[in-house]
Amino acid sequence: MQALERSFISNDWITIVFVTCLVLIAVAKAVYETRFIDFVELLINEKYLLKANKDIRFENPFNLILFTIQFFSISLFIYIVFNELNVLTDASNFLLYVRIVLAYVVFVSLKFFIERMLGVLFNEEQELNSYQFSKLSYRSYFALLLLPVNAFFIYALAPGFIAIVIIVILFLIFNVISLFNTYRRYENMIYNNLFYFILYLCALEIAPYFILYKVFSFI
């Protein structure tokens, strides 16, 4: 009887990513239980943001945990999309994921520091800190929701093109809602500086995503 060669793709490193995210979630819930509960209720009420706005510290361990989960989860979804769309790359699966994580971290970090510099330049540092924290919090919330979706696509059923489009559309809708809620809190300031606000939207809320697309096209 002729032996048949059986090939398969190992998901061991993906399992490690999932376990790491779950451990981080468990640590956040155990150490910062009240704050974690407020964060989970972010879509229902803004108690989490109102409490955090009193003393915004991006370097707080709880925030760093959420940001780390965000980087891992969203990067994993991008990796799944790359595989589903058969994006050609000379990198191994794990190396491709590492490149995506690094590109995403660099993108978010650069955007964050540019916005911080603008806040200092226009003497609106406190307001901009609150705005940035709100955006990052909503994005981290979406990343948590994305974790079980990623697990389903990895271990149960590979996503089709339609499923990917639906999730991307949901992500965009989620971002629009989060931005609307954020802008609503600063509507007076926006109306008084409408020209600069439109300039900001074009330069730092739209253009960076075209740049990110170009970065990923070279991965």
Could you say which structural class the secondary elements and strand pairing correspond to? mainly alpha
Distance between the termini: 43 Å
Helix-strand pattern: HHHHHHHHH
Shape designation: globular
Count the E strands: 0
Mean pLDDT: 79
Low-confidence stretches: 1-9
Tell me the Rg in angstroms: 19 Å
Strand content: under 5%
Instruction: Indicate the percent of residues in helices.
Output: over 70%
Please, how many helices? 9
How many separate structural domains?
A: 1
How is the biggest beta sheet arranged?
none
Walk me through the structure.
The protein is an all-alpha fold and 219 residues long. The protein has one domain. 79% of the residues lie in helices and 0% in strands.
In short:
The chain has one domain. It has nine helices and no strands. The protein has helices at 12-31, 33-40, 47-52, 61-84, 93-121, 125-155, 161-185, 187-192, 194-217.
